[in-house]
Automatic annotation (TrEMBL):
<dbReference type="Pfam" id="PF13561">
    <property type="entry name" value="adh_short_C2"/>
</dbReference>
<dbReference type="InterPro" id="IPR045000">
    <property type="entry name" value="TR"/>
</dbReference>
<protein>
    <recommendedName>
        <fullName>Tropinone reductase</fullName>
    </recommendedName>
</protein>
<dbReference type="InterPro" id="IPR036291">
    <property type="entry name" value="NAD(P)-bd_dom_sf"/>
</dbReference>
<dbReference type="InterPro" id="IPR002347">
    <property type="entry name" value="SDR_fam"/>
</dbReference>
<keyword id="KW-0560">Oxidoreductase</keyword>
<dbReference type="GO" id="GO:0016491">
    <property type="term" value="F:oxidoreductase activity"/>
</dbReference>
<keyword id="KW-0521">NADP</keyword>
């Protein structure tokens, strides 16, 4: 629900603020290797369940989020607004369940 709310907030604010030259976008990550998830990523069975749902078959790295955010701040992204960009190795297009379930 929170990702849905974030998506809608980015869209609504983009409509309200675009006329003032303000862009609003959101980033929706899947599992990214950060201290917050290191405990989860230390459990091999849990990691396998994540990888089974991720077509890229790996966990994301923090640089993959920060580089997207940096891109969105650049002039070359000035016409992008109201978008929620998934940085998830394909999880959202694949679905929550592994192909064999």
């Amino acid at each position: 629900m929170t990702k849905g709310a974030t998506n809608q907030l980015a869209r609504n604010l983009a409509c309200e603020w675009a006329g003032d030259g303000i862009r609003t976008n959101a980033v929706a990550p899947w599992y990214i290797r950060t201290p917050l998830v290191e405990g989860d990523l230390s459990r091999e069975e849990y990691v396998e369940s994540i990888l089974a749902r991720t077509p890229a078959r790996r966990v994301g790295e923090p640089e993959e989020i920060s580089s997207l955010v940096a891109f969105l701040c650049m002039p070359c992204a000035s016409y992008i607004t109201g978008q929620t960009i998934a940085v998830d190795g394909g999880m959202t297009v694949h679905g929550l369940y592994p192909a064999n379930e």
